[in-house]
Amino acid sequence: MKMTKRQAGHLGALARMRKYGNPGTLEGRRKGGINSILIQTKGDSNFKTAKKHTKPRNSGLLSEFMGILIGDGHLSNYQVLVTTNSETDLEHAIFIKKLINKLFSLNPVMKYKKGQKAVDIIVSSVNLVKWLSSKGMPQGNKLDKGLATPKWITGNRVYEQRFLKGLFDTDGCVYMDKHIINGRIYKNQGWAITSYSSHLRDDIFQTLKKLGYNPTLAKTQKSIYMRRKYDIDKYFREIGTSNPKHLNRYKNGRVPKRS
Prior knowledge:
By secondary structure, this protein is of the alpha+beta class. It has helices spanning 5-20, 26-42, 60-72, 90-104, 126-134, 157-171, 198-210, 229-238, 244-252, and strands spanning 73-75, 79-85, 109-112, 118-124, 172-181, 184-194, 216-218, 223-226.
Protein backbone atom coordinates (compact mmCIF):
# COMPACT_ATOMS: atom_id res chain seq x y z
CA MET A 1 0.00 0.00 0.00
CA LYS A 2 1.40 3.35 -1.05
CA MET A 3 2.06 5.78 1.83
CA THR A 4 0.54 9.25 1.65
CA LYS A 5 2.67 12.38 2.14
CA ARG A 6 0.96 13.00 5.47
CA GLN A 7 1.77 9.48 6.71
CA ALA A 8 5.39 9.74 5.52
CA GLY A 9 5.75 13.09 7.26
CA HIS A 10 4.32 11.66 10.47
CA LEU A 11 6.80 8.74 10.44
CA GLY A 12 9.68 11.14 9.71
CA ALA A 13 8.68 13.32 12.65
CA LEU A 14 8.60 10.31 14.97
CA ALA A 15 12.05 9.19 13.81
CA ARG A 16 13.44 12.69 14.33
CA MET A 17 11.97 12.85 17.84
CA ARG A 18 13.58 9.51 18.72
CA LYS A 19 16.96 10.81 17.53
CA TYR A 20 16.88 14.43 18.70
CA GLY A 21 14.12 14.48 21.34
CA ASN A 22 10.77 16.24 21.44
CA PRO A 23 11.43 19.93 20.62
CA GLY A 24 8.48 20.84 22.82
CA THR A 25 10.20 19.60 25.98
CA LEU A 26 13.30 20.80 27.88
CA GLU A 27 15.01 17.41 27.47
CA GLY A 28 14.25 17.40 23.77
CA ARG A 29 15.77 20.85 23.26
CA ARG A 30 18.86 19.81 25.28
CA LYS A 31 19.32 16.67 23.18
CA GLY A 32 18.79 18.59 19.97
CA GLY A 33 21.36 21.19 21.03
CA ILE A 34 24.00 18.57 21.78
CA ASN A 35 23.47 16.90 18.39
CA SER A 36 23.66 20.26 16.64
CA ILE A 37 27.03 21.02 18.25
CA LEU A 38 28.39 17.61 17.23
CA ILE A 39 27.26 18.08 13.63
CA GLN A 40 28.68 21.60 13.42
CA THR A 41 32.04 20.78 14.95
CA LYS A 42 32.51 17.78 12.64
CA GLY A 43 31.89 19.95 9.59
CA ASP A 44 33.74 22.90 8.11
CA SER A 45 31.43 25.62 9.40
CA ASN A 46 32.59 28.63 11.41
CA PHE A 47 30.61 27.44 14.43
CA LYS A 48 32.69 27.62 17.62
CA THR A 49 32.06 26.42 21.17
CA ALA A 50 32.98 28.42 24.25
CA LYS A 51 35.32 25.93 25.92
CA LYS A 52 35.86 26.18 29.65
CA HIS A 53 39.43 26.61 30.85
CA THR A 54 41.38 26.91 34.07
CA LYS A 55 41.98 30.50 35.14
CA PRO A 56 45.41 30.41 36.78
CA ARG A 57 46.51 32.91 39.41
CA ASN A 58 49.22 35.42 38.58
CA SER A 59 52.54 33.57 38.65
CA GLY A 60 55.97 33.36 37.09
CA LEU A 61 54.73 30.62 34.77
CA LEU A 62 51.82 32.76 33.54
CA SER A 63 54.20 35.71 33.15
CA GLU A 64 56.47 33.62 30.93
CA PHE A 65 53.52 32.59 28.78
CA MET A 66 52.46 36.24 28.41
CA GLY A 67 55.99 37.03 27.21
CA ILE A 68 55.73 34.22 24.65
CA LEU A 69 52.29 35.39 23.54
CA ILE A 70 53.30 39.04 23.19
CA GLY A 71 56.41 37.94 21.30
CA ASP A 72 55.07 35.40 18.78
CA GLY A 73 51.38 35.18 19.60
CA HIS A 74 48.08 36.37 18.17
CA LEU A 75 44.50 36.50 19.45
CA SER A 76 41.72 36.28 16.89
CA ASN A 77 38.05 36.35 17.88
CA TYR A 78 38.08 32.69 18.84
CA GLN A 79 41.66 31.38 18.68
CA VAL A 80 44.92 31.70 20.58
CA LEU A 81 47.81 31.24 18.17
CA VAL A 82 51.60 31.12 18.65
CA THR A 83 53.76 30.79 15.51
CA THR A 84 57.42 29.79 15.59
CA ASN A 85 60.15 28.27 13.40
CA SER A 86 59.48 24.58 12.82
CA GLU A 87 63.20 23.77 12.45
CA THR A 88 65.20 25.89 14.89
CA ASP A 89 62.48 26.28 17.56
CA LEU A 90 60.57 23.00 17.41
CA GLU A 91 61.56 21.99 20.96
CA HIS A 92 60.30 25.34 22.22
CA ALA A 93 57.05 24.86 20.29
CA ILE A 94 56.51 21.56 22.13
CA PHE A 95 57.29 23.36 25.41
CA ILE A 96 54.63 26.00 24.59
CA LYS A 97 52.05 23.31 23.83
CA LYS A 98 52.68 21.66 27.21
CA LEU A 99 52.69 25.03 28.98
CA ILE A 100 49.24 25.92 27.63
CA ASN A 101 47.89 22.58 28.81
CA LYS A 102 49.44 23.06 32.27
CA LEU A 103 48.12 26.61 32.69
CA PHE A 104 44.65 26.33 31.15
CA SER A 105 43.79 22.59 31.05
CA LEU A 106 43.25 22.79 27.30
CA ASN A 107 44.89 20.70 24.57
CA PRO A 108 46.43 22.78 21.77
CA VAL A 109 47.08 21.41 18.30
CA MET A 110 50.29 21.90 16.32
CA LYS A 111 49.94 22.60 12.60
CA TYR A 112 52.86 22.86 10.21
CA LYS A 113 52.57 25.51 7.51
CA LYS A 114 52.96 23.93 4.10
CA GLY A 115 55.95 25.24 2.19
CA GLN A 116 57.15 27.30 5.18
CA LYS A 117 59.55 26.67 8.03
CA ALA A 118 56.82 27.47 10.53
CA VAL A 119 54.53 25.74 12.98
CA ASP A 120 51.39 27.07 14.68
CA ILE A 121 50.34 26.12 18.22
CA ILE A 122 46.58 26.68 18.25
CA VAL A 123 43.84 26.71 20.89
CA SER A 124 40.26 27.34 19.77
CA SER A 125 38.51 28.89 22.78
CA VAL A 126 36.48 32.08 22.85
CA ASN A 127 36.64 32.16 26.64
CA LEU A 128 40.44 31.87 26.72
CA VAL A 129 40.79 34.65 24.13
CA LYS A 130 38.67 36.97 26.29
CA TRP A 131 40.55 36.04 29.46
CA LEU A 132 44.02 36.57 27.93
CA SER A 133 42.83 39.88 26.51
CA SER A 134 41.85 40.93 30.04
CA LYS A 135 45.37 40.00 31.20
CA GLY A 136 47.03 42.38 28.75
CA MET A 137 47.30 40.66 25.35
CA PRO A 138 45.47 42.68 22.67
CA GLN A 139 43.16 41.00 20.17
CA GLY A 140 43.76 41.49 16.46
CA ASN A 141 46.75 43.53 15.31
CA LYS A 142 48.69 43.86 18.55
CA LEU A 143 51.02 46.59 17.21
CA ASP A 144 48.06 48.86 16.50
CA LYS A 145 46.84 48.59 20.09
CA GLY A 146 49.79 49.82 22.14
CA LEU A 147 51.64 46.61 22.93
CA ALA A 148 53.30 46.82 26.36
CA THR A 149 54.26 44.81 29.44
CA PRO A 150 51.00 43.83 31.21
CA LYS A 151 50.42 46.05 34.25
CA TRP A 152 50.06 43.13 36.68
CA ILE A 153 53.62 42.03 35.81
CA THR A 154 55.27 45.42 36.34
CA GLY A 155 56.72 45.88 39.82
CA ASN A 156 57.11 42.19 40.66
CA ARG A 157 60.73 41.11 40.14
CA VAL A 158 59.94 37.42 39.57
CA TYR A 159 57.13 38.22 37.11
CA GLU A 160 59.34 40.69 35.25
CA GLN A 161 62.16 38.15 34.92
CA ARG A 162 59.84 35.43 33.64
CA PHE A 163 58.13 37.82 31.23
CA LEU A 164 61.55 38.76 29.82
CA LYS A 165 62.34 35.06 29.51
CA GLY A 166 59.23 34.36 27.44
CA LEU A 167 59.76 37.42 25.26
CA PHE A 168 63.45 36.70 24.65
CA ASP A 169 62.72 33.06 23.82
CA THR A 170 60.44 34.19 20.98
CA ASP A 171 61.64 37.65 19.86
CA GLY A 172 65.25 37.48 21.03
CA CYS A 173 68.57 36.11 19.84
CA VAL A 174 72.17 35.44 20.82
CA TYR A 175 74.42 36.74 18.05
CA MET A 176 78.04 37.47 17.20
CA ASP A 177 78.86 41.11 17.89
CA LYS A 178 81.76 42.39 15.78
CA HIS A 179 83.40 45.76 16.41
CA ILE A 180 86.71 47.51 15.69
CA ILE A 181 88.77 49.33 18.31
CA ASN A 182 92.05 51.05 17.30
CA GLY A 183 92.16 49.06 14.10
CA ARG A 184 91.70 45.69 15.79
CA ILE A 185 88.66 43.49 15.23
CA TYR A 186 86.96 42.14 18.34
CA LYS A 187 84.21 39.52 18.40
CA ASN A 188 82.00 38.61 21.30
CA GLN A 189 78.52 37.35 22.01
CA GLY A 190 75.65 39.78 21.97
CA TRP A 191 72.08 39.54 23.30
CA ALA A 192 69.10 41.28 21.71
CA ILE A 193 65.31 41.53 21.72
CA THR A 194 63.63 43.07 18.68
CA SER A 195 60.13 44.58 18.72
CA TYR A 196 58.25 46.95 16.43
CA SER A 197 56.41 48.37 19.45
CA SER A 198 58.25 51.43 20.76
CA HIS A 199 56.31 51.27 24.03
CA LEU A 200 57.32 47.65 24.60
CA ARG A 201 60.96 48.42 23.76
CA ASP A 202 60.96 51.21 26.35
CA ASP A 203 59.39 48.86 28.90
CA ILE A 204 62.04 46.18 28.32
CA PHE A 205 64.87 48.70 28.46
CA GLN A 206 63.68 50.09 31.80
CA THR A 207 63.02 46.62 33.22
CA LEU A 208 66.54 45.43 32.35
CA LYS A 209 68.07 48.49 34.00
CA LYS A 210 65.94 47.97 37.11
CA LEU A 211 67.10 44.34 37.27
CA GLY A 212 70.74 45.42 37.26
CA TYR A 213 71.70 45.09 33.58
CA ASN A 214 73.33 47.57 31.19
CA PRO A 215 71.19 47.52 28.04
CA THR A 216 71.41 49.71 24.95
CA LEU A 217 68.26 50.91 23.21
CA ALA A 218 68.70 51.20 19.42
CA LYS A 219 65.52 52.86 18.15
CA THR A 220 66.49 52.76 14.48
CA GLN A 221 67.08 49.00 14.69
CA LYS A 222 64.00 48.51 16.88
CA SER A 223 66.07 46.46 19.34
CA ILE A 224 67.40 46.36 22.87
CA TYR A 225 70.97 45.05 23.13
CA MET A 226 73.29 43.75 25.80
CA ARG A 227 76.95 43.44 24.73
CA ARG A 228 78.84 43.02 28.00
CA LYS A 229 79.82 39.45 28.80
CA TYR A 230 78.97 40.10 32.45
CA ASP A 231 75.38 41.05 31.52
CA ILE A 232 74.85 38.08 29.20
CA ASP A 233 76.27 35.62 31.74
CA LYS A 234 74.11 37.20 34.44
CA TYR A 235 71.01 36.88 32.24
CA PHE A 236 71.48 33.17 31.53
CA ARG A 237 72.41 32.52 35.16
CA GLU A 238 69.51 34.43 36.77
CA ILE A 239 66.73 34.28 34.16
CA GLY A 240 67.72 31.53 31.74
CA THR A 241 65.76 30.24 28.76
CA SER A 242 63.16 27.60 27.91
CA ASN A 243 64.34 27.58 24.29
CA PRO A 244 67.21 25.11 23.75
CA LYS A 245 68.31 27.02 20.64
CA HIS A 246 69.34 30.04 22.72
CA LEU A 247 71.04 27.96 25.41
CA ASN A 248 73.07 26.01 22.84
CA ARG A 249 74.20 29.19 21.10
CA TYR A 250 75.17 30.78 24.39
CA LYS A 251 77.13 27.74 25.60
CA ASN A 252 78.80 26.80 22.32
CA GLY A 253 79.60 30.30 21.12
CA ARG A 254 78.63 29.36 17.54
CA VAL A 255 76.16 32.11 16.80
CA PRO A 256 75.05 33.88 13.60
CA LYS A 257 76.08 37.43 12.76
CA ARG A 258 73.61 40.17 13.62
CA SER A 259 72.23 41.72 10.42
